[in-house]
Amino acid sequence: MAEKNKFTPMMQHYLQIKQENPDAIIFYRLGDFYEMFFEDAKTASLELDLVLTGRSAGVEEKVPMCGVPHHAANVYIQRLIQKGYKVAIVEQVEDPALAKGLVQREVIRIVTPGTIMDENADEKNTNYIASLYDYQYGICVVLCEMTTGEMKAQLIDKSVIALQKVLLQNNVREIVVEHSFDKRLRKMIEELETITISAMNHDTVKETYQRLLNGISDQRVHHAFGLLMNYLDETQKRTMTHLQPVEMIYEQEFLQMDYATKQNLELTASLRGSGKQMSLWSFMDHCMSAMGSRLLKKWIEYPLIQAAEIKKRQDAVAYLSDDFMIRDELKEHLRYVYDLERLGARVAYGSASPRDVLRLIRTLEHAPVIFDLFKGCPSYPEYRTIDTCMTLHDLIDGAIVEEPPLTVKDGGVFVDGYNERLDELRRISRDGKSWILELEARERERTGVKSLKIGYNRVFGYYIEVRKGNLEAIKPEFGYVRKQTLANAERFITEELKEQEDTILHAQEEKLRLEAELFTDLLNQIKVYLPKLHDLANALATIDVLYSLAQLAGENGYVRPQFHEGHRIEIIEGRHPILESMMKTKRYVSNDLKMEEEQTVSIITGPNMGGKSTFMRQNALLVIMAQIGSFVPARSALLPVFDQIFTRIGASDDILSGKSTFMVEMMEANHALQHATEHSLILFDEIGRGTSTYDGMALAQAMIEYIDANIHAKTLFSTHYHELTQLGEENETIRNLHVEVHEEKDEVTFLYRMLDGKADKSYGINVARLAKLPEIVLQRARQLLEGWELQGDGGIYQPQMMVVEKEDPQMREIADMIDMVDINTMTPMEAMSFLYELKKKRSA
Ligand SMILES: Nc1ncnc2c1ncn2[C@@H]1O[C@H](COP(=O)(O)OP(=O)(O)OP(=O)(O)O)[C@@H](O)[C@H]1O
Fold this sequence. Notes:
Residues 490-517 form a coiled coil. ATP binds at residues 606-613. By secondary structure, this protein is an alpha/beta fold. It folds into 6 domains: 4-111, 3-Layer(aba) Sandwich (MutS, DNA mismatch repair protein, domain I), CATH 3.40.1170; 128-249, Nucleotidyltransferase, domain 5; 285-389 and 530-556, MutS, DNA mismatch repair protein, Chain A, domain 3 (Orthogonal Bundle), CATH 1.10.1420; 420-523, MutS, DNA mismatch repair protein, Chain A, domain 3 (Orthogonal Bundle), CATH 1.10.1420; 562-770, P-loop containing nucleotide triphosphate hydrolases (Rossmann fold, 3-Layer(aba) Sandwich); 809-843. It is 43% helix and 18% strand. It is built from 26 helices and 27 strands. The strands form 5 sheets. Strands 13-23-24-25-21-26-27 form a 7-stranded mixed beta sheet, sandwiched between helices. A 6-stranded mixed beta sheet has the order 3-4-2-1-5-6, sandwiched between helices. A 6-stranded mixed beta sheet has the order 11-10-7-8-9-12. The structure holds adenosine-5'-triphosphate. Adenosine-5'-triphosphate binds at residues 588-589, 608-614, 752.
């Protein structure tokens, strides 16, 4: 690059800004465009499909440049952020018309992946920016959701697993760390790709943000919080007024599940495809507001472990599900509850629209009714005296017209009578318009030209238009001054019209400016109430979730689970909530789960497809729902309060660290064996199947013995190793369960019923037949199996490689077609065409 001072002054200024913000793409405002230069221009032109041009900048060669129109900039910025870039927006900060020399420009905000306020983002989804403070033997994480202002802090182990869990679980888009942050962990985060890393060294907490620390005295939290707030200050270029006080999260105060378990159980996202489709969250979500949906997600991720807290929620669900009149009425009012959390952010950023304010007023109108309906609920007395911000309501109610424009810029936001000066300006421009109409009539009369009209355009202002054919009627004494010539008309102005034009245009300009000012004032008044609005938002969201749980229970006939202090489990006629609701033609078969006080392991055997995994998931979901405070799909449920759930279900590779299925399986099993307690629930689905039969069986048995002797956690262990059922027969604390199947002439029907005792055989070959494997393969498999079974009985069996004939797929298809039809119900015509089809297939 040529020496800096050879460039034009503007380009020198640009380079200065680039130097100060080397890791951001600079959007430099020039007129109606944001322009990018040099490497930024090359990157953006590739990423955004923009034409790369050049600009003379004082040096010989043109500098690379590309640009986007300012009104469409948001879309482009969002696309860059999606790809992990940061964008620094450089705006003109003085009116170009008044500027002497170079227009003054400044970075007004740096948009980054963790701080973007995407107006169109899915309102139920959240993503965080996190700061990490490494205190040698652990990491303090402070998380912030910018659009809702939520803040939380957590202390975690200094390990890849713990860090991955926090980052993935919270959908963290960006992290802020000190320059000296641990290299190994930094590399792991870099590999995650979806996360942008930013460095910041300054971690002193500013006075203005002390209140957000919420009385937390832990210095580690102060460090991490300081890093984050200083980063936000530096990028957002404003004081963060919408953030909520930091909430300290202690995982051990909730039912703990690792990230894999949350994924396996599809708690908040389904395994197939991303998003919310058919997760427990989407299934349970009957909330009327986005805030409610988000809070429900949090409840699902963090179920409770204190029986008293669970009971508090249960009592509220019972209150609402018993009285469907109240529930229905509540629904009608919850419908008007607007996203107060997101509104808070928009108010703080000054980007709230008149419609936002109107929705806030609606919410404040309905809030007292909601609390009134809820006041009969015995377990939430604190809501009876909540401040519903009526003073704010009275302050802003009636200020805004019923159907305000999208933005303040368009004017017409406030009702008449709101502000005297505004009324006056409106009258002037209104009167001005009728004066123009009068003038038009007068001029038609005076000139005798019926088609004469008065018009307006932005370039020439007001004008009198006369068609070419009528020009003779315009006498010099009328004082018409020519302004513009068109193909078939002339446009004029008169002294009188010019004067009126000044008054009208001035009034209009002032009117818009005044409305913008008044609106900013209004937002500032709301800003004062933000902390109170957050409390209100929290309470409304809680009632919405409780309503949602009651609705779910009412719709599906769920029961209130009972908790006790022992270890016994007794779920009678439990169902899988999601599968049950998805089954349209078949009926879901309910199953009991009974485990006595001392019992540790239930070994579940039965054929593939028999329903073993479903049964295990069903019980885990029931436990989670119960500890959220929800009612559950069962006839009755008696449960202990679990402290942790561990699962090893389904085959999932750890793509992140490139470990094989078997390795992941062993790591997850190890995690469970290391951390489970007698209050935990363990679900192991076919552990050991990823290695040779004897290895797998040996590992499985050793694990069962270990859990039974040392951990005493309640464990559901499904397996195809029938030999393991011996353990159930010989030990008091281990029991066998099996799924029932009906077998007739090699055909199996699944009954999905869990019965006591072990399965008599595995039915693998029968299930393979259902999958339509070639008959000849099935026959050979049966022959081999019989041979091996004989060997097990002490016989000698040496399987030989056998060459079997390849099955003709066409003949198989023809045979299938014949099996499908019932000749007795066919007409002769149908039989003929069927025969014809067969013949055609054969000769194809
Ligand atoms: N209780 C039930 N009532 C009705 N249908 C069920 C029930 N349980 C399972 N199913 C059906 O059976 C299918 C297979 O169940 P599942 O995956 O639990 O079997 P599995 O025994 O774990 O099989 P594998 O050993 O091959 O993993 C489910 O997708 C579901 O459609």
